[in-house]
Amino acid sequence: MTDEGQRVRCRVFASEPNDLKDERRRGVVLWVPQSLDELINTAKEQLRVSSANCVVSEDGAKILDTNMISDCQKLFLESECT
């Protein structure tokens, strides 16, 4: 959890968490916004991805709220989360 007013960054990649490091496409560092939809839309725009609708952590867990994101956490866009 962060103090009031402290900004949190995250690293977002368009590849899958299980992709080999050498096969991953370049990611983007973003400030974590208030809403998950805003994070997804900004990441999609920056990474030129059209089909993503959810974000997962490096271990494959679905992120449900931006308050769950740790500073500098590695995240991945996915087109279908179950």
From TrEMBL:
Q: Which Pfam families match?
A: KHA (PF11834)
InterPro entries in the cross-refs: KHA_dom
Domain of life here? Eukaryota
**Domain KHA: from-to ranges:** 9-82
Q: What is this protein called?
A: Stelar K+ outward rectifying channel
Query: What is the organism field in this record?
Result: Solanum tuberosum
